[in-house]
């Protein structure tokens, strides 16, 4: 039996807003630390410090053994890159994915940022990935179904000549970083649960987009997900609330 989808009360939604606000602020801080010459660990530190200063806990740290607050994934790394001594350089693209827990609830967001001047392809990939999120959430409305979101993401991404990752998906969120339902960024094959969206659900919509083929592999560190063909990849994610009308993007900040 699949775990059931939690509907948040108005009080829980208020706490989710606060957790998400910390996550969004941390993403802004991390984004500002994506600079030529800095290490991925220095970027992680900026995120980590922001979360703690704002009363949150970096939920990724220790999650299934992940060793940092932030997943920092460079170029062909799609997600789950481990921060370390790697120095980012002009021309690189850097994906940051992080979560903050506040009063027992989790906010989760991600984004991909350019270091200095990057190729036209890289710039376009970042923009298409971000826009794919907005195309998807046009269907994040009470009465629509979960797969309506992924279909819109996939169609938009493929119409721009890019591909969407299949092996990882978005998810419900609340007290747990990963709750039901799964939120794929593509049309699932076969019969898969396709729940209707209901007011009070909180979910993460997170397109992971490859410039080439969508197939991935996992590096020997057991975490880092890279494109199998080593093409560039980008990621964009927000935690959103399903309402009576338009979804509320809980992790939105004006600069991202
Ligand atoms: N924030 C990620 C997500 O979008 C999960 C990070 S994995 C972790 O679901 F191990 F780093 F926590
Ligand atoms: Co997520």
> What is the number of beta strands?
15
Distance between the termini: 38 Å
Total of helices: 4
CATH architecture: Alpha-Beta Complex
Strand arrangement in the largest pleated sheet? 8-7-9-14-15
CATH class: Alpha Beta
CATH fold-level assignment? Creatine Amidinohydrolase
Topology pattern, helix = H, strand = E:
HHEEEEEHHEEEEEEEEEE
Overall SS class: alpha+beta
**CATH homology group:** Creatinase/methionine aminopeptidase superfamily
| Strand residue percentage | 15-25%
Overall shape: it is globular
Bound molecules: 2-amino-4-trifluoromethylsulfanyl-butyric acid, cobalt (II) ion
Major pleated sheet: 5 strands, antiparallel
The low-confidence runs, each spanning 5 or more residues with pLDDT under 50, are none
Rg over alpha carbons: 17 Å
**Percent range of helical residues:** 25-40%
Total domain modules = 1
Quick structural gist:
This protein is an alpha+beta fold. It is built from 4 helices and 15 strands.
């Amino acid at each position: 039996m699949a775990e059931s989808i939690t509907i948040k009360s108005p009080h829980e939604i208020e706490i989710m807003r606060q957790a998400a606000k910390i996550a969004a602020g941390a993403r802004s801080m991390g984004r500002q630390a994506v600079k030529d010459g800095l290490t991925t660990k220095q970027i992680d530190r900026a995120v980590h410090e922001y979360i703690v200063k704002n009363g949150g806990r970096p939920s990724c740290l220790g999650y299934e053994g992940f060793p940092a607050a932030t997943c920092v994934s460079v170029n062909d790394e799609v997600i789950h890159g481990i921060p370390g001594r790697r120095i980012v350089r002009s021309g690189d693209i850097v994906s940051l994915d992080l979560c903050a827990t506040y009063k027992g609830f989790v906010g989760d967001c991600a984004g991909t940022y350019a270091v200095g001047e990057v190729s036209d392809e890289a710039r376009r990939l970042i923009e298409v990935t971000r826009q794919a999120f907005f195309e998807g959430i046009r269907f994040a409305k009470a009465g629509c179904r979960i797969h309506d979101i992924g279909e819109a993401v996939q169609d938009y991404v493929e119409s721009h000549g890019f591909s969407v990752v299949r092996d990882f998906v978005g998810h419900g969120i609340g007290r747990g970083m990963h709750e039901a339902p799964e939120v794929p960024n593509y049309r699932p094959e076969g019969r898969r649960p396709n729940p209707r969206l209901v007011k009070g659900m909180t979910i993460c919509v997170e397109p992971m987009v490859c410039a080439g083929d969508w197939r991935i592999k996992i590096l020997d560190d057991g975490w880092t997900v890279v494109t199998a063909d080593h093409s560039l990849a980008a990621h964009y994610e927000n935690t959103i609330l399903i309402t009576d009308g338009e979804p509320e993007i809980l992790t939105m900040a004006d600069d991202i």
